[in-house]
Amino acid sequence: MVGTIILPKIGQPKTTRDAVISILSQEWPLSAKQIYNKLQRENGFAVSYQAVHKILKDLENENIICRNNLAYSINPEWVERVGNFAKMMQESFASFSNGSDSNNFSLDSIYNLDSFIVEMAEKIMSPERQTLCIYWCHFWIPLFQKETYKRLKRMIEASNSYGISKSSTILDQWCEKFWTGNKVRMKCGIDLDSPDFIIYGDFVIQVYYPKEIVKELDKIYSSCSKISDFDMSSMFENVFEKKTKIPITINRNPELAEQLRGKMLGYFKGGKNGK
Known about the structure:
Structural class: alpha+beta
Largest sheet: 7 strands, mixed
Strand order of the largest sheet: 4-10-9-8-5-6-7
Helix content: 40-55%
Distance between the termini: 39 Å
Strand content: 15-25%
Order of helices and strands: HEHHEEHEHEHEHEEEHHEH
Number of helices: 10
Mean pLDDT: 88
CATH topology of the largest domain: Endonuclease, Chain A
Number of strands: 10
């Protein structure tokens, strides 16, 4: 399993997961009991020992921490990935600050792309509720319980969101029902003849998945005749963490954003073409 590159939160940790990472970044190695005691006594987190154990297991599975016997430490390889990822984010925003309207680069897996989108979105999103448009080859955010997808879910629910999936498989339809049940407007089975994209304000993020990745996704989605057929772990490990090259373009282009937003909102009754 390759590791996530989601950036750690700066300042006072708001979640137990962030607090565990913060504790191990300052002192290591520590046992699960030592981490539990520090969470309780020094960080004020009222959490059970079992919950701490689960968090440690999840962080280890994501290669964020490593265990030697019964002691945990931050994984040095994760630190390196975070540093490279932060540098890419810094360069991306620096280009816009210097007057550039476009930025192009590549991510090495679907999961790391989704992680980048989380970080990017949290930096550009306004505290005011604005329109967020998402057009993707398949819906998958509700299928996973990882922190990256929980954050994406919160952002979608906090915005005036519209989403379209090009595909209409059982899994896509299940995700559509999940979103509409949470009062988010989503539709599947609509082909906009466009690369996958996200629109927020004047920003347009366009993603170009390699054909082989799309083919693998299509095969998995098409093979599920019911939601219980879906093997979340297998798809995540074999497709979402698979090393590849996914080109991405970020444009700050009001005209392009307005054009794509209008094209998408035309499929929703009462959809308003606005920022």
